[in-house]
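Two proteins were folded this term; both appear here.
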Amino acid sequence: MNLFRFRDIAWSGTLLICLLAFTAFCALTKRVYGELEGSLQNPRILTLEESFEVAKASNLTIQTAEQNLKTAAAQVRAARAGLLPRITANGDYTYFRDVQKSVIQAEGGFGFPPPGGEEAATQPMPTPSADNEAELIELEFGAHHNLQGTVSLTQPVFAWGRYYYGYQAAKLNYQAVEREVAAAYHQLRLDVSEAFYGVLVAQEFVRVAQQSVTLVEKQLGIAEASFEAGAATNFDVLRAKVQLANAQSQLIRAENGVRVAKNGYKTFLNIPLSEEISVQGSLESVGEHPLAAGSLEALIQQALENRPEMGRSHLNERAARKQVDVAKTRRLPDISFFSNYQISQNERLTEMNRIWSLGFRINVPIFDGFATQAAVQQSEAVLKQTELGGAQLTSAVEFEVRSAYLNLLEARTLIEAQRETVAQARESVHIATIQFENGIITTVALTDTQLALAQAEVNRLQAHHDYVVGLARLEKAIGQQLQ
């Protein structure tokens, strides 16, 4: 009876646990699906500055550059260690199963004269035999168990600046890597700006394509109404339907262009491609900066002074010179100070041995197989490569500034030209639509005006896109933002 009662209680407890687990699972599933549905309905909206902050925190290129900076900092600490004293400690235990033994005479051993004075001492020692074996003593030299410990200190005193030059080279290399990180941030800002404005212009292309579809649909409605009233032919209806199909195709391409642009944008931000995002901004929100023709040389000078790449090149050149100095000191003697403290103990000693010593050591290189000569030649070759790289970088920076400046001027000129063109194209479409409704012009003429408007809108958007991207490229080229 008690067994059956226990079984009923166990079944009831198991059922209760299953119900609680099922309830928790349903709640968790509902929350997950709710979050997923909310993320799909409410995409993440990012501005340009927010995009840049997200990219700085998650971009893999930036993370790699920061790790390089940590490596350079560790190299500075390692180079500084050459200037500081080096302290080492070691200890060992040795066990000898057999120790060295020696046999001496009982009389006259260890320098004591034998009986009979000095004359007896000059006599040769008798050969051991059974007769005199009792007069011999067997001694053990050493011990079975031996302990020894040593603490050593070494401090370079004079090495012709070898360690100091190496420390300076490491510091210069660290500063160069800092400029490299800054250059990576500038490049990231440009990449994010291009991707961000690429999404914006793709969205604007969708808007223009949708406007074209709306206009053609309105044209098709007018053509069908005119055809039913006998004021137009079936050609106008067919022409409008073909134009509508073409406009819808352009809309599909534009929508796909938005998806492609967003994927590229999310790649730079290291955002999962499955995450839904949206950008907030305007191609026309950036104010136009006055760029006088005479300011080009000033911009080039700013680039040569402010570009992180230029600073990195100068620092690398100075670090290479220090490495040449380090290599040259290897053929010169150096002096160091040393001090040792040693202790030893074994089972035969009544008191531990303690030995302390200090002194100076001079190291004079005589022949190293021409290794120093090869190291100097290698360092000088690296220095020459660094100098040539700096000259190439100067030319590249100047070319980049000139190209960005000219492209920005071109985009600004196109914006001014396209502003009037779009206004005229819109007015032409308005007039053509009225004329088409009144049967004054044909579908072909109306279609031409609509195509001209769509092309003008695309050119205007492209000009604005080129301007904001060109501005970002110019700011990257000169190494600072334009005021």
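Next, the second protein.
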Amino acid sequence: MKKFILFVASGFGLGLVAPVAPGTFGSLPGVFIVYFLSLASLPVQIASAAALSLAAIPVCGAAEKALGIKDDGRITADEWMLFPISFIGIPLLSLPWWAMGVFFCVVRIVDIVKPFPCRRLQSLHGGLGIVIDDFVANLYSLLLNHLLVIAFFAFK
């Protein structure tokens, strides 16, 4: 069970094998989830993002205990499981193919910069501390991604 938890928590192994930036590589499974959820209605997108966010807490907490290191960089479930938050209501399938790359960069930059109060929230204990900063960062990313859609794609 420990190996399975680590496999899931590391983005299906991507966070374990990435030579650099395990959080970025470990976010990639989230891209597939986002494309799948882009076919769903807004309420389903919201419910799915909430369910994944809640599920990420025990997954990250168990992985942290297994690795014995607080918020180990190899734990990327907080990235890939919360990634769909940044795309709620984004009409991804009607945008150019490269828009996902732009949105992905926004999410990763916001996660790395950790605007207030993200960095402070990281100090919370266990899985909640691992996940909560990413939850708030993804809300910032959701706002920025919607602004990008309005600014660059809404009037085409």
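Residues 5 and 63 are 6 Å apart (CA to CA). The radius of gyration is 15 Å. These notes refer to the second protein only.
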